[in-house]
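Slide 14.
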Amino acid sequence: MPERSQLATSFLPVPGSAPVDWLIEPGLTPYPEALAVMEARATAIREGSDRELVWLVEHPPLYTAGTSARQEDLIDPHRFPVFAAGRGGEYTYHGPGQRVAYVMLDLKRRREDVRAFVAALEEWIITTLAAFNVRGERREDRVGVWVVRPDRPAMADGTPAEDKIAAIGIRLRRWVSIHGIAINVEPDLSHFGGIVPCGVTDHGVTSLVDLGLPVTMADLDIALKQAFEHVFGPAELLNSESLRKTG
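Slide 15: predicted structure.
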């Protein structure tokens, strides 16, 4: 079986497909409302009554538990609300200063290959980070995107220290995806201390600002759209009307 890094990372739709809707949600989106909107939109996509969607949000501080979450990895269960997400993976944190991109794509119009889809999401993140001269890297033994930290002491086994800068967690139902990716722009990194992020204990968490880059959320959103179109095809920016009013 090929490694994810060896998989083709283009996930373009079949010719003639409509552009993906691209919406940037203002303010902080409550997590239960986000789940409801994603489920409703994914159903509409499966039925052919609505277009694919990438929905960019920020959440108030909270923890989410994926289907592989272990109770012992929830270090401080009373710090923030905890939600069962229904996606793959373990515990993760969402909060202000972190860009969450919910991805509702129909893989039947693209490619029915889960591992290649994850590789494409990684490629999207890596290409986005490259716009800020950040080298994001894959790790075959763990999902997400990582940055090497030469400014910190090496690990006990001599490998360079590294931190996670972006997380990936998806769910597919009849080949339509929900959930997506999260990139740390300027969250409060101490908030990750209430969990073992994604079950990984040997590495830390970082952000673009933590790396010394004065990147704004608007800067990241521009880079995200450009990189998305490179990997997944055209996306059409919608006005800022909230999906919560129609979802």
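Speaker note: The mean pLDDT is 91.
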